[in-house]
Amino acid sequence: MHNKTMSHFSAEAEAELQSLLRQLLKSIKDRISGAPSIECAEEILLHLEETDKNFHNYEFVKYLRQYVESSLGAVIEEETEGCARGEGHAVGSVQDTLVHAVTRKTRESGEYKQMMQTLKNTMMVVVESLINKFEEDQLRKEEMHRESQHQQSNSHYTDNCSDSDSSFNQSYAFIKQEQLQVLAEKLDPSRPKEVRWEALQALCCAPPSDVLSCESWSGLRRNLSAALADPDPDLSDKVLRFFAKTLSCSPLNVTREIYTSLAKSLESDFLYHKLSLPTGSAGIDVNRQDITRLLKQMRLMNDFQKEVTTFWIRHPEKYMEEIIESTFSLLSLQPEHGLGTQGSEKALEPMHLIALLDIKATWFKKWMHGYYSRTVVFRLLERKYKSLIVAALQQCIHYYESCDPVRDETAEVIRSMEHQHIGTAQRTLYTAKELEYTYFVHSLCVLGRLLMYTNGRKLFPITVWKRKDPVSLTDLVVILISIMYQHPKPPHSDSSHADSLSPTTLVMEVLSTLGDRTECAAECLYQTPVIETLLAPIITLLKGKQVSIKQANLNSPETTLIHIADTLARIATTERGLSLFLYERNLVSGEGEGISAAHVIVQFTQRLLAKELPLLRNAETSHGVSGAFIFVCRQMYNTCEGLQVLRPYGLHECIAAAWKKTSCLSERVPTPVPGAIPGTSSQELQNVVVWEETLLDNLLNFAATPKGLLLLQQTGAINECVTYMFSRFTKKLQVSRCEKFGYGVMVTQVAATAPGVVALHSSGFVQALVVEIWSVLECGREDVRVVHPKSTPMDPIDRSCLKSFLSLVNLLSSPHAVWELLGQQSLPNKAEYNLREMPTSITDLIDRLIAVNSDVKIHSLFNYEQSHTFGLRLLSVMCCNLDSLLLLESQYNISDMLLQCQKDNITDSSSGEGDFIIDGLSVERNHILVRMSVIGGPSERRLPPRALQKGTDPYPWPMFSSYPLPKYYILNLPKTTWGKQDSEISTFLASTKNMEKDGSWMDTCRRQYCKVMTTKSNIVSGNVLADLLEKAVLHLSSSPSERFFPPADYIGE
């Protein structure tokens, strides 16, 4: 610190104090800028120590503290010693402490008064110097700004148009109401340019809250709008900078005023200037002074539109409504030029510029995201600004009707839009076609967002120009699909930006969005005209082998057909869409008959697999289209209803034949050599391998239903399909993009049949599952360093092995699986088990985890109780099936083994007397023994629980170690009295002899059954129900129209 005395500061000290004060003001600039008035700013400074945690770290505060200590240190010490000794100064009152007394005496001293006077005089000099320096800086900055304006030439419209001045040196000074009144008068359009520019410069230095709260704001706002529209870029840019600064740092009640002023100014500009789109090859140069000014203002608006959604929910709804309404008022502006006809010019609308700046309507998507703003948007669109939606719809219709697929103009526009930015260079010229296309893309994105919501769909139907009938939702979707047909394949480019702007991609985004939402899909996609439009090219191709591209209405058949298949697959994944495909017979096939969509799709798929369509000559594209349409069929045949409709076509045989043919080609794929560049033929063979896997995957999905699994078995490809499934199962992959689950359901379905279990076993799935279970139960995670010991499991089946347990239960849920995996196989029952020995089969797993009947087996388990409980729970599930129980009992005497374990669990096991030791394993064994010994439901038997209860007797249910089991577990059944209804059904069944030839027998049977079941169903005997079921099945199997599989299908299998 520089030297200073009590009477004055040195020049160096004043300079240092000035620097520190300047630094403090910079640090707290944000606090002051948020103050709505000068009085509030003073309050902030007065209470800064209470509100700023860094107050004592500021250098200015440290400087003042040191100055006070040097000025009053001696006085404070003297007063402290005097008060402590009690000499010379008495304490004024009992409540005064030593600190209070010293403080009071110090403030009454002459040194304190001299220090305060010196500090006050010095600070006045410092503050006055700061103000003078501030004014000098402003003048210097104005001079530099003028020079830079003369030096600048043709800057791009996006350069710094929304940046606000943030440096404290550039201005932050409070301004009085009188000064604002003077500035408003200086900004009058009649004043000279220099006077207006200086007023704007001063206005930018004032807090926005002070400006908007002044009494002359209405006149100031009018003058600012006039300056904003001034052809002089100096004035308009300065106003824009003031607007940008206000929008970036003010609350919504302030920014809404600025935003609405900006919107109204733009609206006046468009109405006054009436700019036109260029004709022919001419374009709009964004460096034109009037276009640059409009683009800068539109960009500032668009930036605010995208940011305001993050905070407008914290303010009253009327603020948000003002912003939305001013935006819609501007965008709905349509100058007198109209849409334009041939030979007439079309007006440049605000929508052209907003589309150029935000082509995919990000601002509108953000406004529609939240319910808070979405409600206001829909209300305003419905009541006042429906013309916005009409214009967007009209733009899509105009693009559809004017698009010439032969000339391929859209591809050229997309290619030019892709190269907007090349290095540091930027485009400055946009043709009318490019502006119209950006308007179309923007409109399509807006409409796609509207269709997502119920209130958006309620805006339809909409009446548009040159159309007699209003455009409905269905009409709009049909138009979008037609646009997808007309537009060619996106140009081959490494840039994903170009592909994202292609009509095909945009339409597919809208269709996929609609398909993913149930209500949207029902109103927009599940309509007969939409399905007819999607299937029209397919029906055209099916009508004859030699069909031209033009007749099929396809400009790029491979790409378009894949998109059609993708949309159809999304529809078929839902219950309502599937029903529409299967049962609506309103389409005309190639033979002229009315059939459903499912029949058209499967016929087309068969023709693709047979390669009977010369339109698709390229093998790679043919495989892509074929795979896409097989996937559509897959959404149908993986349900029972869809499989029944598609079965007459033998699609499983067509796919299997294509797979067998492809697998022969894939065997020729050479072994890849590291470092070698694959040749063309090698790449083609790799594509063949991918196609083979696609066919296997689709064949595998026949196993989603029991009848489909039988069809898969008949193809002879079940082993290869299961091996493919196992490879994907180990990688934890989902079944497809429509089915988000894994292959667990498929494993259960396959394991329900003997051939399926054999295929699972031969693929290695069973062994991998057993090893996984053993690893979870008995082996730790060897690849991780053990820092903490593993927690003791609290549940019978720990969470770590629950998934493996469920997989094993799914595998062994069928008696066919149990027989194939355990039939005629004895348990090892070794005399010694190596601790590192792992089971590899279901038999080994039963031997180690269920039949734990020796000390050797017990000692071979690291986690005996947990592992044995796992095995007993698995046994409990397997015993629920009577066939599996009989197999286990006949081969392994499971019940005797369990009884012996219970006998060994008695306190005096040698004599067989004593009490049972109640633990988790004995309770589990008791439950299984009762389940195995007594068959029936809850009214026929009483199953003991697996958990203990609180109280003195935790397990009151009797345990046993020999048969017969206690009578406690057997319930006495009430006697059933057979009534008249039983005899009525019996009489009906006995009276029908030639029921195979009686077509009405089934209807009569159904009526009799419903009559009995709705009156007194509890008196119908089991024997009568068995006879009824047997005769009903016999009648259905003898009817060709009712049976699903003919009897011949089962012969020889």
Automatic annotation (TrEMBL):
Transmembrane segments: none annotated. Pfam families: BROMI (PF14961), BROMI_C (PF23440), BROMI_N (PF23431). InterPro entries: BROMI_C, BROMI_M, BROMI_N, PHAF1/BROMI. Residues 17-143 form the BROMI N-terminal domain. Residues 878-1051 form the BROMI C-terminal Rab TBC-like domain. Residues 150-164 have a biased composition (Polar residues). Residues 140-149 have a biased composition (Basic and acidic residues). Residues 140-164 are annotated as: Disordered. GO terms for biological process: non-motile cilium assembly. Residues 178-860 form the BROMI middle region domain. This is Protein broad-minded. It comes from Coregonus suidteri.
